[in-house]
Amino acid sequence: MRSTARLFICLGLSLSVLGWPAPSSAQGFKWWQNDQFRTELVLTDEQVGRLDETFQALQPTLRTQKDTLDKLESKLSAVLSDPRADEASVLAAAERTEAARSELSKSRTLLTFRMRRILTTDQNVTLKTLYERWARERRNRPSPQHRDPGGR
Questions:
Q1: Which one of 67, 81, 91, 130 has the fewest CB atoms closer than 10 angstroms to its CB?
Q2: Which domain holds residue 103?
Q3: How many domains does the chain have?
Q4: What is the pTM assigned to this prediction?
C-alpha cells in the first residue's frame, strides 16, 4: 500500500506542475469511468473509449517502470543502511533510482498530455475543478489509524 500511496503522491505532484489533475495512478482512480465525473464532464462514449485506450496503451510501461523504481528504491535503502557503503556506491544507487523516477514521471506526463488532448477546453477546466474537489475530500477523510475504535 505504501508503494501505491507513493505512486499517487508522485503522480499528483508531477501533474500539479502542469496545472492539470492526475488522470490516474497506475493502479488507481480511473476518473473517466466514474459516473459523477462522466456526468459533470459530459463525456461522450467515444471520449471514454479513447481515454481508456490511451490509459491501457501506457499501462504496461507504467507498471514496468514502477516495478523498476520500487526495486531500485529498495537497493538504495539497502546501500544507505550498509555501514560498509561508501559515498560513490550511494551516489551511484541514487542516480539509478532518480533516473528511473524520471522515466516514470515522463511516462505519466505523456499519459496526461494524451488524455488532455481528448477533452475539450471546457472539459479540461471542469476536470481540474472536479479533481481538486475530489483530492480535498480525500485529504479531509479521517485515516483508519485515527478513527475511534468505538465508531465515534
A1: 81
A2: 2-19+26-135
A3: 1
A4: 0.70
